[in-house]
Amino acid sequence: MAAAAAAAxxxxxxxxxxxxxxxxxxxKAATAAHLKAALSRPDNRAGAEELQALLERVxxxxxxxxxxxxxxxxxxxxxxxxxxxxxxxxxxxxKCLLAGGGGYDEFCAAxxxxxxxxxxxxxxxxxxxxYRCRTCGISxxxxxxxxxxxxxxxxxxDFNMFRSQAGxxxxxxxxxxxxxxxxxxxxxxxxxxxxxxxxxxxxMMSEFVLPRFIFCLIQYLREGYNEPADVPSEKDLxxxxxxxxxxxxxxxDLTKMGGAMRSVLTQVLTNQQNYKDLTSGLGENACAxxxxxxxxxxxKSSGLTYPEDKLVYGIQEPSxxxxxxxxxxxxxxxxxxxxxxxxxxxxxxxxxxxxxRKRVKLSSNTKDQSIMDVLKHKSFLEELLFWxxxxxxxxxxxxxxxxxxxDQEYKVAFTKTFVQHYAFIMKTLKKSHESDTxxxxxxxxxxxxxxxxxxxxxxxxxxxxxxxxxxxxxxMMESCLIKSELQDEENSLHVVVNCGEALLKNNTYWPLxxxxxxxxxxxxxxxxxxxxxxxxVTWMNFVSFFQGMNLNKRExxxxxxxxxQTYYAAFAAELEAxxxxxxxxxSHCKVRETQEYTRNVVRYCLEALQDWFDAINFVDxxxxxxxxxxxxxxxxxxxxxxxxxxCQELDLDSVLPDQEMLMKLMIHPxxxxxxxxxxxxxxxxxxxxxxKGQAMTYVQSHFCNSMIDPDIYLLxxxxxxxxxxxxxxxxFERFKVVDLLTxxxxxxxxxxxxxxxxxxLEGALTFLVILLSLRLHLGMSDDEILRAEMxxxxxxxxxxxxxxxxxxxxxxxxxxxxxxxxxxxxxVLSAVADFKAPVFEPGGSMQQxxxxxxxxxxxxxxxPVMVILRTVYRRDVQSAMDRYTAFLKQxxxxxxxxxxxxxxxxxxxxxxxGLMRLLHCKTLHIVLFTLLYKILMDHQNLSEHVLxxxxxxxxxxxxxxxxxxSDEEASACGPERCHDSxxxxxxLVSNMRHFINYVRVRVPETAPEVKRDSxxxxxxxxxxxxxxxxxxxxxxxxxxxxxxFQEIINRSNSEANQVVRPKTSSKWxxxxxxxxxxxxxxxxxxxxxxxxxxxxxxxxxxxxSYYPPWLDDIEILIQPEIPKxxxxxxxxxxxxxxxxxxxxxxxxxxxxxxxxxxxTPPVPPKKITAAEKKTLDKEERRQKARERQQKLLAEFASxxxxxxxxxxxxxxxxxxxxxxxxxxxPQVSEAVYDCVICGQSGPSSEDxxxxxVVLLQASSVLGQCRDNIEPKKxxxxxxxxxxxxxxxxxxxxxxLSLLQxxxxxxxxxxxxxxxxxxxxxxxxxGHTLHIxxxxxxxxxxxxxxxxxxxxxxxxxxxxxLCRQFANSVLPCYPGSNVENHLWQRPSNKSIQDLIKExxxxxxxxxxxxxxxxxxxxxxxxxxxVMKDIKNTTQKKYRDYSKTPGSPDNDFLFMYSVAxxxxxxxxxxxxxxxxxxxASTAGKxxxxxxxxxxxxxxxxxxxxxxxxxxxRKLTQLLEEMSSQLGNEEQQPEVPILYxxxxxxxxxxxxxxxxxxxxxxxxxIVKVLFTLLYTQGLVALSVKCNxxxxxxxxxxxxxxxxxxxxxxxxxxxxxxxxxxLSKGKLYHEEGTQECATIIPVAWSPESMEKxxxxxxxxxxxxxxxxxxxxxxxxxxxxxxxxxxxxxxxCLGLLPTFYQTEHPFISASCLDWPVPxxxxxxxxxxxxxxxxxxxxEQGKALLIQESKWKLPHLLQLPENYNTIFQYYHRKTCSxxxxxxxxxxxxxxxxxxxxxxxxxxxxxxxCECVLHSQNCGAGTGIFLLINASVIxxxxxxxxxxxxxxxxxxxxxxDRDLRRGKPLYICKERYKVLEQQWISHTFDHxxxxxxxxxxxx
Length: 1892
Fold this sequence. Notes:
single chain; about 1900 residues; alpha+beta; 6-stranded antiparallel beta sheet; 3-stranded antiparallel beta sheet; 78 helices; flat
């Protein structure tokens, strides 16, 4: 093949190829077939040449690129023959040639057949949804495409779904990255065996065509890259890439053909000969030459020899004759890398300037600078990658290169090429404008290459991968170094990275560091790194760039002007660039065999630290007022030490430096601890908030185990090896509280303001407690650590599972073993915590599932020290203590305010035993003694916290005392021996009982002690004797520390080769302004024990309160662990300590008894100055104030609760006092209303009407009722669809339009109700206000700028009393209750009289109660509220008339509003009235007022008495036939087609209000006869012919019985005979029979049918009666609902109750002879069915049994929804939406915020909410699992109804764990939808501006 290609390169063009172009175009296939045949011959030279010539011409880069370069303008100006055409032609040719004459698609299919699909290798780009299974993954970066994941078996695994950030590829089938058990079904079979061998001729053409094609592509890339002086603009590059889109896509398609094609491509891409022949640029072809020149220019200008870079990249230096990869020469370069020039090393006289900064330099003499082409490409693959980088990783190219990876040979070649270009990648990345995108693309590639251990090892060995990476990182950072200002600003030689540079701020280094961490996770690679001394030196150099970065200097005078936020960058950089590689390395140092590695790291770490101390010129005092939180070198050192002791059994002392180095090491970490205390004491307040941010980040869960934990561990190590007195005094000096530690009552602090002293002292003691009691690195096992961390977090607050995972510091390296969510995590969690399932607070926020600590955890494991260490916010410590207090109260263990409990510690690892010497050193004992004394004497600035910590330290000392008590008797003569010190020995146990008599202190002259002592010296001669005995002691911590330091230094530097200049810093000498200090002597006469006992008295407030418990119960001394002492306050703590002291030594026991025996003289009454008293009382007062506040709050809360219960039962229908608006007691007074704004009560009057606060909203809930009980399911596949035909709204719509087709419009509009969709629902909170008060309230709202989510201009407001959302006021009709009662008295008029009265009343012209001329305020309000009601819903839901604007429309709309409200109330009561009573809706119902408003307006439209349906119901009309004579105009709607409930409302609203009860009953009775007849007709239509004739017969026989009119059989037979006269029953063709199911009708089933038919009407009527007349609804069983309601409505004669089987017909009360009126009604039907039998029948069968509305039923598992919808295309714009959503009411799929589907400025969700819910939309956002509610012009996030196994939402699917439906939440959502309470319950509403 190569020979053939070579032959065709040069030479003249063979003549036969010059076929005229058109012929070629027509016959590509033939040419291809001919060439294929030619090439198949044994001697294929001619064929090869011919093919080459053809390709030369077709793929000539000249034509298209000339067009691309010169013809750009032409193309833009519309030159059709632009570049596009030629390229398409070329692609067509290639496809034809590859297929060799056949069809291209068949060719593809043929190649695919030979695909040995062992790997999936699907490549995806950003935002793709993939899966990661930690159970199956070997590499932490493992990922699977959705298809492979679902085809594999991962039940019970720890997996999650995630959105790819940078893109990735599927690893299914790759056993290097994941376990085979997790492979999917397709990739389990090792299929290479059974795939046949590829036939030679199938891919033969490809082998010839592809090299030319790829070369052509490379020429394009070369051409397109114009290297201008500046960086080429994005636009130019993108233009070229757009032109190349089809070519690259073509290559991408080839890779998808499977393994066979990929191996051909690999051959082509890696064949060096091909590349050489085609690209050398030596041929005569000018174009090729030009292209080669451009390539060379690009190489050169790629700055592989940048002048400003002091490095000529060794990486790209091929040795002259090297045929291997270009990296060979790098080895020699890397060799010199480690060995820094030795001259540099010793040159420490300080003359070294910044120019000679110690850097790792690749000394230039090893390089030959004359080599121009530093990077030499030897194959297409290498040059392709070069251009890919140059063009900043275009997505298409990346995808192509990655698609090839399943080919093993390619994978290795590509990885090597990638490494070879690594440095070039870094430079391009640094210059790139789009570094984010580019970073993602780089990692997309590198993660595929470096996650594979085998590959990483191979490249490390063959291409020096590690050296390249470390060097590249080093040089990347070198570009942003600045001089360090730490310590010695002028002379510092240390350089640090500048966190303000873009490189750090934008995390540009991230891809390179991420690759480095990735390869260090492989053991074989990490071991090479740890063995290579040169590399370790370079790496420590790199780390030292971060040592001391982002230095903070304390602002002392004014607030800093500009708060820099660089600290984010600094913390991120230390975590990512230093800590994570460190954790990676540590994970390979787990066993004894790896000791050597640790020694290496520790050695070079110490060297780097020593260099650092020298560079910053550090001796022993840190510079004041500076702190840096970044000490990565210290932390490397600490973590490797910890690992060495814990896992590798190394002897600690063998890796520790000398004392002097330890002293230096401890300074900076200690400085950080002191600074934390300063920051929390507000001493850094002038540095702005960012310094607090740093202090928080330092301890925050993601950082703490790489920052504060190593620091504290290092301090623990130093403390265990240094002199304890030195260490303790250093601590107090660093915390600046030395001067406070004096017995004197006043002191001078030269370095600290008085206001900060207390908190700094607390800080110092707390630090000591943490230092001495923390065991994280001192002997705890991993599981114990996990448990301690978890307990600490749970004690602060209840936590969700995910927040616990987040808060527990995980080992940042994924291979460490403790993965969050791993087995141990779950088992520890279940051991320490109980799960609280999510509860629902109606009207509140949704709760998540929480974990709360078990009781025994509070009892035994609560550890305040751990809590203090882990809290980011100080309030969390308080929160933990409050919870602890609550637990003790609840369990009855301790009633008061407890102190933090003392917790026993796990035993120390033997290596760290020295740490406990801190507790047994005189310095600490003096401090403790002093503080106890000061607390007892009530000196200022001491707090309970200080006492608590002092006692904690004493207790720690007793717990950890050395067993030295044997010489107890000897030490009794102690005081004589020890002249130099306060205490005889260093053991706390014996020092506790040592009495100190006198102390000499230095005090200001103003101090009270001075005067007192001067008296003492004259009066008493004891002074002299004292001074001789030397007991009086001046103690100065500072002096002690200096002395010790000097000793240590002298000891370690006996050779004295280095002169130490102890910096006596001026800050310890007192400033001149201070008053002189004099020496005074205090008489003390106390021991620690006696102080403790006195403290006990002081705390308990009683004399002699302490009585040694062992005197009563000797047992106590034998079993010391007494639960009584484990929880309690300070008193308990003192008792516990005294008991422990007594246990430890007999002497102590005796002395305690002695002290207690001396009846303590009463504490002298303190002479407290006013100032001291202030400070003393402050705490007490605070405490009292707190309690008062608590009490007030509790009282307030209970008040609020009771108010809420009375005023707002939004969601608690049960517990609730009824708020009747219309009082139903027989008072002779008018209804009185309270105005919630002005507070006055009074009746509503014409002039000053009162109104109800109401919310009007359009609702389509009714329209969503269906006739089947099962709610519809949300479609989750293409087959499932929801059609809205069977909804209530659709059925009613169809009915109305059918009527309008055949009958008179005005009559149609009276025959039905509208409002099933877009009906107006009115609800109130029950509060009333004067309408004029309301207007002024609205004005004030309008002027108030801060509006909360509602728009005043639309009339929206919140009720002034209960803050419920409202948008209108419904006027209350003035009227007294008296007439109500008169109206209700039953009269004995006959039904006929009543009917006449009703007709007369309806006939009266309607008018407002007062004549229109004098329009009152009330009538105005009535009008305006009516306008509001109309405007609530859209026009399309109001106008159904054919003639727009007809009054019939308004009429229909008004009575339908009443209907909507009644129907909705019925639904709220559960669809029936069985429960009876006044339900919630009743209490706050505004139907009464609404009825008045509607009735007043309805009466303005009088119905022409001709057409009033009332007459048709109650009178026999004579001339029936004459009505039908006028055929030309449409007839009226037959009365049997009328909706009876609508008739009821029309009749009642047409009557003058208030209504007489008799008239109401009359109307109901009349309408019931019609309803019953309709039921009979429908029944007759439903049954078949023989049933009908049978009934007709049986009924006819009984027709003459006495109560024939009340027997359904008779009536039914009559109906049938009447209707048989028409054509209603005739046209039952065959098609009809199918629809009617033959039912065997029995009398029972017929009765039931009739009752069910009538029930909806009875329910609505009863509700109406309840509201109009205030009668209660009786409750009943479902079976008897019909009879109860009918008797309640007065349909059932009272005497009828007795008869046993109840028959609905007995309720009938015919106003005129039944048979006459029925035949009259049937006649109308017959005359209609003459013409339209089908429609006539359809209109008769009314479906009256609507079930309750429901939201769609959702599947159990969220994944089913997600998988179907997140890839689904939108039906409108046919794109896959960025934010897909689905409507939970009707299942419509919409684009949220999608501009693609925007119509007239409304986005699709808003539009849909108007069409589907009349302004209310409930959408499930597919990509977020959250539900969003749209209500009118506002929206809110409702929450999620899908929770994970731990009861938590997963908004935005960030965690990607499986989610399951939470039925309770969904019920709550549905309830809020049905009850229309979204506005009241959800609080966070915002405007959506139609953009959703």
